[in-house]
Design brief:
heterodimer; A: mainly alpha; Arc Repressor Mutant, subunit A; 10 helices; B: alpha+beta; Jelly Rolls; four-stranded antiparallel beta sheet; 32% strand; flat; SigE family RNA polymerase sigma factor (chain A); transcription regulation (chain A); RNA_pol_sigma-E_actinobac (chain A)
Chain lengths: 169, 190
């Protein structure tokens, strides 16, 4: 693949996926800037080996996996590279504050155990099936169903929704 | 019945997307380029230091140079600049067969997250290097055990028996006090 094509390919994937991945990790962290840092780091790692990653069947899945692995390993708290990324951030424009619903949902997610929170986020924001989450997490499908069920119940309780409205997996 | 959470997450996505400000692909390129430059500079500095140290170590008071003695220049430089044996990474890895994580400690803490279902586990941590390596094991975000490994050049390993009450995470925090130590670790379900 010519170098220009590789560059263009990376730019296209970056443009198409950055925001969506950031939303997923924002729901997981509850911190949008931290989510952006982790996603940017994942793309940096992808770029470094893009000639190989771009040949995978699903390069986006690789980036997503790295981003989530970084999130789970708490890499973000210990790597000084973050300080460099922070210096690169564009100035944040003044925007409207988050809506009440968004705050409540993010707070409710934060109250869930990490595995349940991750399963819920991957399912609802990552559009991943139960089987895909199970493969990603290296657990049985039934385990993911249990996580999702508990996660939904926990969210319903936090959000004061009647638990019977929560759909079973 | 439609899942009420779908609409909530759709709202979350719709509200958040406009606020995401990607640093950009160009910023990623600059980061990768900068890191490559730093790596190259560090390597060059090591090479220069090795050469300089070797030359100085071989120079007598009268300015003449004598042949090298038993220690090689690279071993000497490794001791001075990085501390510990050059093969410390391999030593640590050999102490933990099938290690999932291994690296050399930098000046900051290493924080390794490991997924775990409920059950009993054995965490094996091996290290080789010049400094004591404090290890903190956290189970589901609570400190479970703390121990300092007295690392040596020949390497040491310790097993931590861990009980994870429910599906969650095991975090292993290796203190930056152990800078220059090579480590390897593995979590194994019993």
């Amino acid at each position: 693949m010519p170098a220009d094509d590789v560059s263009a390919d990376f730019d296209a994937v970056y443009a198409a996926q950055f925001a969506d991945l950031t939303v997923q990790l924002y729901a997981y962290f509850g911190d949008r800037q931290e989510a952006q840092d982790v996603v940017q780091e994942a793309f940096c790692r992808a770029l470094r080996r893009w000639s190989k990653v771009s040949r995978y069947d699903d390069p986006v899945a690789w980036v997503r996996r790295v981003a989530w692995n970084l999130a789970v390993s708490r890499w973000r708290r210990s790597r000084t590279a973050l300080s460099f990324l922070r210096r690169q951030r564009p100035q944040e424009p003044v925007v409207d504050g988050p809506t009440t619903v968004r705050i409540e949902l993010v707070q409710a997610l934060a109250a869930l155990p990490p595995v349940q929170r991750r399963a819920v986020v991957l399912h609802y924001l990552g559009d991943m099936s139960v089987a895909e989450i199970a493969e990603r997490e290296g657990v049985a499908v039934g385990t993911v169903k249990s996580w999702l069920h508990r996660g939904r119940t926990g969210l319903a309780a936090q959000l004061h929704q009647p638990s019977e409205e929560v759909r079973r997996a | 019945m439609p899942d009420p959470l779908n609409s909530l997450f759709d709202d979350l996505r719709r509200d958040t997307l406009p606020q995401v400000r990607p640093p950009g692909a160009e910023a990623a390129r600059r980061t990768v380029h900068r890191r490559a430059t730093v790596r190259a500079a560090a390597l060059a500095a090591v090479v220069i230091a090795v050469g300089g140290t070797w030359i100085v170590s071989q120079r007598n008071l009268d300015g003449t140079i004598t042949p090298a003695a038993s220690a090689s220049a690279s071993t000497y430089a490794s001791d001075m600049l990085w501390r510990g044996r050059a093969d410390k990474t391999e030593i640590a890895a050999a102490l933990v067969p099938g290690a999932s994580h291994s690296d050399v400690m930098a000046e900051h803490d290493q924080d390794v997250g490991l997924e775990a279902d409920g059950g009993n586990y054995r965490l094996r941590v091996g290290c080789a290097g010049p400094a004591p390596l404090p290890v903190t094991v956290m189970v589901n975000e609570t400190v479970d055990q703390q121990q300092t490994l007295q690392c040596t050049d020949d390497g040491v390993a310790r097993d931590f028996e861990i009980t994870v009450p429910s599906a969650g995470s095991v975090r292993v925090i290796l203190s930056g006090i152990g800078q220059f130590d090579a480590y390897a670790l593995r979590l194994e379900k019993l």
